[in-house]
Design a protein that fits this description.
- By secondary structure, this protein is an alpha+beta fold.
- It has a single domain, classed as Structural Genomics Hypothetical 15.5 Kd Protein In mrcA-pckA Intergenic Region, Chain A (Roll), CATH 3.10.290.10.
- Helices cover 42% and strands 19% of the residues.
- The protein has a 5-stranded antiparallel sheet. Strands 1-4 form a two-stranded antiparallel sheet.
- A hairpin with a 2-residue loop joins strand 5 (54-59) and strand 6.
- Helix 2 (11-17) crosses helix 3 (24-32).
- It is elongated and about 65 Å long.
């Protein structure tokens, strides 16, 4: 490697090493699909990251706004992976609020255990017919 590329890592490798995605191919697909933005713009999986770059990573209902603190191509323990980036306080607050909201919505759902029973289906049908 040359001196210029020694301090850079592919974005898909870094996202995998930082434990945002389980596999590198899933990380590459997320970058290709526009779920990851580098410095506010769409990017390719082969784009090289450097320390100080800002990333916006969207996974499901959650959104991380982070800056790259250190680079790594190797996947380590979760505690080591968290040292690879710094999340903005605003991003963390919004993400935690979203998680609490989703948890509250899930707990208030009367059909937590999958498919409704025959009685529950009949009750739903009666309820829908009353509101017509």
């Amino acid at each position: 490697m040359t001196d210029e590329t020694e301090d850079r890592v592919r974005i898909d490798k870094w996202l995998w090493a930082a434990r945002f995605f389980r596999t590198r191919s899933i990380a590459a697909a997320a970058v290709e699909g526009g779920k990851v933005q580098l410095n506010g713009e769409r990017t390719k999986p082969s784009k090289l990251l450097k320390v100080g770059d800002s990333l916006n990573v969207r996974i499901g209902p959650y959104n991380w706004e982070i800056s790259v603190a250190t680079l790594s191509e190797r996947r380590g323990r979760a505690a080591e992976a968290q040292k690879l980036y710094q999340e903005t306080p605003e991003s963390r607050r919004v993400r935690e609020e979203r998680a609490a909201t989703l948890k509250a919505e899930h707990q208030s759902n009367p059909f937590l255990k999958g498919r409704p029973t025959k009685k529950a289906r009949r009750d739903l049908i009666r309820l829908k017919q009353r509101h017509r």
